[in-house]
Amino acid sequence: MRSPASSHSRFPMIPDSEPWRNLLPSNLVVAAFRTYATDYKMVTSNTSSGNVSIEKIPIGTEIEGMNILGLVLFALVLGVALKKLGSEGEELIRFFNAFNDATMVLVSWIMWYVPVGIMFLVGSKIVEMKDIVVLVTSLGKYIFASILGHFIHGGIVLPLIYFVFTRKNPFRFLLGLLTPFATAFATCSSSATLPSMIKCIEENNGVDKRISRFILPIGATVNMDGAAIFQCVAAVFIAQLNNVQLNAGQIFTILVTATASSVGAAGVPAGGVLTIAIILEAIGLPTHDLSLILAVDWIVDRTTTVVNVEGDAVGAGILHHLNQKAMKKGEQELSEVKVEALPNSKSEEETSPLVTHQNPAGPASTASELESKESVL
């Protein structure tokens, strides 16, 4: 029996299809408050033989919550459009930059009261938990999973990418960056590590100043691969804490939202935690469990920052190698062109009737010829 509830949806129903539908919201204002989701209705039907069958029917509905995917996609398209406008779009870009700076100032004020708030939030969570050992064990697993993910990405994936592009020992390259890595581990801030990273990558690894001073400041702002890893782990941890089974659509939403939100994460301590709320809103999970993440973030944020700055350094090193390779290739081609042009010019001089051939003996021979002519006269 086909669902009588199919009239509730405007589109042909596809299970776990929320991410695709939320990418293009019909109304941006509504997208700030409501999001599309697939609900299921159990329909009971009786057959002619007297058997009862229960069918699970998907129904498209709108629920409370921000449509993060649609808003992020619109922001990306709007940013490209404003850049295409040139000087006409600069005013709106400056407005959004000023609005973002003002928001960060407000957040910095609020962060002064965060320790007190975390103390009460964690205290309430401990009181609510029937078994505190389970909570501590779950937090320990979350910390271990986050650090393990950072170790795999920073110790295997990034060095492998560097080796593939440069064919050089990546660990020798990373050995010259121990000082900025220690600074990142101690400060938990990509921005605070930037001066040390620029100095070490130029002096110890010989990266061109034009590359390091262009790539590293941008990377400290937008390249937050360590933050993206821990945000995904945190979202899965909160889902398991609330006994929520994540489907394929929700996992895809976590990946896309974590990648997009990590680009806008601030390069300050606990900057990535603020964006986890966006991910939780996108997949419909409660945000009140963020207090547990904040309570142990001082541990996870250290390895997060190290992986962030390592990714910036690897990108600068790869770009420096490719630039050096392109310059050497250009110089080699130029020298080959000069070598080919030299014999051609000689052959043209020998065969051209317009070229005046002089005596190879030079001025001395011409002087002797004049003396002989004078003696004859």
- Using the alpha-carbon principal axes, give the shape: globular
**Overall pLDDT metric:** 78
- Strands side by side in the biggest sheet: 1-2
Briefly note the CATH topology name of the largest domain.
Answer: Proton glutamate symport protein
- Main sheet? 2 strands, antiparallel
Class from helix and strand fractions: mainly alpha
Q: First CA to last CA: what distance? A: 130 Å
Q: Give the CATH class of the largest domain.
A: Mainly Alpha
Give start-end ranges of low-pLDDT stretches: 1-17
- Helix segment tally: 15
What's the gyration radius in Å?
Answer: 33 Å
Strand portion, in percent? 5-15%
The structural domain count equals 2
Helices and strands, in order, run as HHEEHHHHHHHHHHHHH
CATH architecture of the largest domain: Orthogonal Bundle
Helical content band: over 70%
CATH superfamily of the largest domain: Sodium:dicarboxylate symporter
Tally of strands: 2
Oligomer: single chain
Keywords: Glycoprotein, Membrane, Symport, Transmembrane, Transmembrane helix, Transport
Membrane topology: Multi-pass membrane protein
Transmembrane segments: 65-82, 102-122, 142-165, 171-194, 214-239, 251-280
Region (Disordered): 333-377
